[in-house]
Design goal:
By secondary structure, the chain is an alpha/beta fold. The protein has three helices and five strands, in the order βαββαβαβ. It starts with 7 loop residues before the first strand and ends in a 14-residue tail after the last strand. The mean pLDDT is 88.
């Protein structure tokens, strides 16, 4: 199904607060939206429940999409080695490598305040 002006979009973190809003907006505009989260994603055209730290799960979800919106992550300040590395860093690697292998045209990476949490800018 390739409709001009319509995209096949994978949204990771699709059952979360921002993910649900992204899924709803994309579906309302007529795009096919595949959700990937730890639980099934309400409102998505198709939903995959799985761990984004698992290569096979990510690669399956990326198959036949032309856009990825990566929203899934552990949003809290947490232990780097046990929480942030497996939940935030490794999945980005999987998303980008799978996007490259499947020739995905567009990848959008979102971030949180934790990226610059301790940086204070003076004007």
């Amino acid at each position: 199904m390739n409709v001009p002006g319509k995209h096949r979009v994978l949204v990771t973190g699709s059952a979360g607060r921002i993910g649900k809003a992204a899924v709803a907006a994309l579906v309302a505009r007529g795009h096919f939206v595949r959700g990937l989260d730890r639980i099934l994603s309400p409102g998505a055209s198709e939903s995959i429940a799985g761990d984004i730290g698992d290569w096979e799960t990510v690669d399956k979800a990326v198959d036949h999409v032309d856009t990825i919106i990566h929203l899934a992550a552990t949003p809290d300040d947490d232990d780097f080695m046990t929480k942030l590395l497996p939940n935030n860093i490794i999945p980005v690697h999987h998303i980008l490598e799978s996007a490259k292998a499947h020739k995905v045209q567009r990848v959008i990476l979102a971030s949180t305040g934790q990226v610059n949490w301790h940086h204070h800018f003076k004007g």
